């Protein structure tokens, strides 16, 4: 860049600043009104005993104290963590496997890609009804087909453990295709001659994956892992549509607890305290993952 | 990032015959499992109501009827809800592509005080669970008298942290020479944004547009609470309410769901190739 005189550079700077503020004005206004302010007001709500009609009594950390001592909160926190710890790696792992399969030249590749991506474009609320039917232990298709193999669905979604597995399966089903597309995009950026050179050197496919594919996909993995973790921790739609948190609250997670205490019991103060706690958990996990991935010299 | 390796090799042979068979088998199985609920939905939509409940484990219907497709139009205000879904999802998509790209342009290409702070805020907003803001936002929209209106549905969604982040990653990667040259020639930032950066960003805009459209087309909770009038409800919200009050009419519900899904499916099939390219060319690789 050619050297410019000081005043010119200075006026360009000021000009850029004014333009920049005009450019961000619409977003800043909308986010300020419909995101930042609601966040602040829900933080405020969390310190009050409050209902539909607004805050009533200031209770300080009362809601948070009640929450920590609440076995229901601890149970739902455990469910949230178990769900995230199983669904996140399962979703990302399957997405990577499918992407590796569908990256190469194949017959009907476009069909397979579209088929696996399809759940991402479907309404989870509606599809959960179809899943409920497929998994029903007395009339469902899957128990009917799997019975000869000795697979039992027991009491189906009336059984706490099986209900939780159902919710996780639907959660994985919904998102695998989406992350697969992210991985396909990542794979498309790896130069093919790397593999050619590696196979001339006699590297096995596993070795090629470990030395070329995986390291060069680290940006994708970082992004996919963080998005998938956030999605898992906030899972709601399939729980709402399939089990409504039951049976005996066995599928209730923190996201569902917020909905139940806020919109059903109208205890907005307590619900806001849980919501802020969930937000802080998501912040902490994302931050941890960012640090982990950036330590491995990856920036996304 | 790319490691220097010699690139004189011949193309490697991919997989041998048994491997291929295994590969295809896994893919067919995976695709079948993925499509199973969709196939069941399609099947149920063309079966007479009683048949679904008496023979639910038939995947391929033995009795066919189109009566569900005819009846759903009068069972719920289908035409109105379809229009509402199109306006809502389309409106959100257009406005957020515009506002997201303007903000992303400023964050990626302009120097200004507060830039880092604003970007950090965007990263934090990415992680906010939607449940946390739902109550206050609802109260605000109600206070403004915008319940059951398109502005009330669209404006709170008209920009979004993910969109800004996504486009910023893309804009950062564009070469700066063009805009630098235009700037020295006296072009305004608005002109650089609109005539240089936006055309180059077409694949990313297409991808993000599809994300926005998809997400809002399918969204349940927001349209459900922001509309109380059935004629203003979106299709997923209308169908969910229908499912709540008419628990047994699966055929109707599945016919409605099939018709609600079709536009999304066709849109995806049409732009599939560009869609993947669009992601590939952004910073999200």
TrEMBL record, chain A:
Its main location: membrane. Residues 77-289 form the ABC transmembrane type-1 domain. It is found in: Cell membrane. It comes from the Bacteria. InterPro entries: ABC_transporter_permease, MetI-like, MetI-like_sf. Gene3D superfamilies: MetI-like. The chain crosses the membrane at residues 20-40, 81-102, 114-134, 162-185, 216-236, 268-287. It is a multi-pass membrane protein. Keywords: Cell membrane, Membrane, Transmembrane, Transmembrane helix, Transport. PANTHER family: ABC TRANSPORTER PERMEASE PROTEIN, INNER MEMBRANE ABC TRANSPORTER PERMEASE PROTEIN YCJO. Belongs to the binding-protein-dependent transport system permease family. This is Sugar ABC transporter permease. It comes from Jatrophihabitans telluris. The lineage of its organism: Bacteria, Bacillati, Actinomycetota, Actinomycetes, Jatrophihabitantales.
TrEMBL record, chain B:
It comes from Jatrophihabitans telluris. The keyword Glycoprotein does not apply. PROSITE patterns: ABC_TM1. Residues 82-271 form the ABC transmembrane type-1 domain. The chain crosses the membrane at residues 21-42, 86-108, 117-138, 150-171, 192-215, 250-271. It is found in: Cell membrane. Keywords: Cell membrane, Membrane, Transmembrane, Transmembrane helix, Transport. This is Carbohydrate ABC transporter permease. InterPro entries: MetI-like (IPR000515), MetI-like_sf (IPR035906). Belongs to the binding-protein-dependent transport system permease family. Pfam families: BPD_transp_1 (PF00528). The keyword Transcription does not apply.
């Amino acid at each position: 860049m050619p050297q410019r005189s000081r005043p010119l550079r200075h006026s360009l700077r000021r000009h850029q600043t004014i333009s920049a503020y005009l450019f961000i004005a619409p977003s800043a206004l909308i986010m300020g009104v419909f995101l930042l302010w609601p966040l602040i007001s829900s933080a405020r709500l969390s310190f009050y005993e409050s209902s539909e009609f607004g805050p009533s009594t200031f209770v300080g950390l009362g809601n948070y104290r009640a929450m920590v001592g609440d076995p229901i909160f601890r149970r739902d926190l455990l469910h949230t963590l178990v769900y995230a710890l199983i669904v996140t790696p399962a979703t990302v792992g399957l997405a990577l496997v499918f992407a590796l399969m569908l990256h190469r030249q194949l017959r009907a590749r476009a069909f397979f890609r579209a088929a696996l991506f399809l759940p991402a474009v479907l309404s989870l609320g509606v599809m959960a009804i179809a899943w409920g039917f497929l998994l029903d232990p007395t009339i469902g298709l899957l128990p009917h087909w799997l019975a000869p193999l000795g697979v039992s669905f027991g009491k189906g979604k009336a059984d706490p453990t099986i209900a939780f597995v159902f919710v996780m399966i639907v959660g994985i089903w919904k998102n695998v295709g989406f992350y697969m597309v992210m991985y396909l995009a990542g794979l498309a950026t790896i130069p093919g001659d790397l593999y050619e050179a590696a196979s001339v050197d006699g590297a096995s496919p596993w070795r090629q994956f470990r030395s070329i594919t995986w390291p060069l996909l680290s940006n994708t993995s970082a992004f996919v892992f963080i998005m998938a973790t956030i999605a898992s921790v906030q899972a709601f739609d399939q729980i709402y549509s399939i089990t409504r948190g039951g049976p005996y609250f066995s599928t209730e997670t923190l996201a569902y607890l917020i909905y139940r205490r806020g919109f059903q019991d109208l205890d907005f103060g307590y619900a806001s305290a849980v919501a802020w706690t969930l937000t802080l958990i998501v912040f902490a996990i994302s931050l941890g993952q960012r640090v982990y991935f950036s330590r491995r010299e990856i920036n996304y | 990032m790319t490691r220097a390796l010699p690139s004189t090799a011949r193309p490697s042979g991919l997989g041998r015959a048994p491997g291929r068979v295994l590969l295809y088998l896994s893919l067919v199985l995976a695709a079948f499992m993925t499509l199973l609920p969709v196939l069941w939905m399609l099947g149920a939509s063309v079966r007479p109501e009683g048949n679904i409940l008496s023979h639910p484990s038939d995947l391929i219907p033995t009795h066919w009827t189109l009566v569900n497709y005819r009846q759903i139009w009068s069972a719920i205000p289908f035409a109105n809800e379809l229009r509402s879904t199109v306006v809502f999802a389309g409106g959100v998509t257009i406005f957020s592509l515009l506002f997201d790209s303007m903000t992303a342009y400023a964050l990626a290409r302009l120097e200004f005080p507060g830039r880092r702070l604003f970007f950090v805020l965007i990263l934090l907003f990415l992680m906010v669970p939607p449940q946390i803001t739902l109550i206050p936002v609802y109260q605000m929209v109600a206070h403004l008298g915008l319940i059951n209106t398109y502005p009330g549905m669209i404006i709170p969604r008209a920009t979004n942290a993910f969109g800004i982040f996504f486009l910023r990653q893309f804009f950062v990667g564009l070469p700066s020479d063009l805009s630098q040259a235009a700037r020295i020639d006296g072009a305004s930032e608005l002109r650089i944004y609109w005539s240089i950066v936006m055309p180059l960003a077409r694949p990313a805009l297409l991808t993000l547009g599809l994300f926005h459209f998809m997400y809002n087309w399918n969204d349940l909770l927001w349209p459900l609470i922001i509309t109380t009038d059935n004629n203003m409800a979106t299709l997923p919200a209308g169908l969910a309410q229908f499912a709540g009050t008419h628990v047994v009419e699966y055929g109707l519900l599945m016919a409605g769901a099939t018709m609600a899904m079709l536009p999304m499916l066709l849109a995806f099939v049409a732009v599939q190739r560009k869609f993947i390219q669009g992601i590939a060319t952004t910073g999200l690789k």
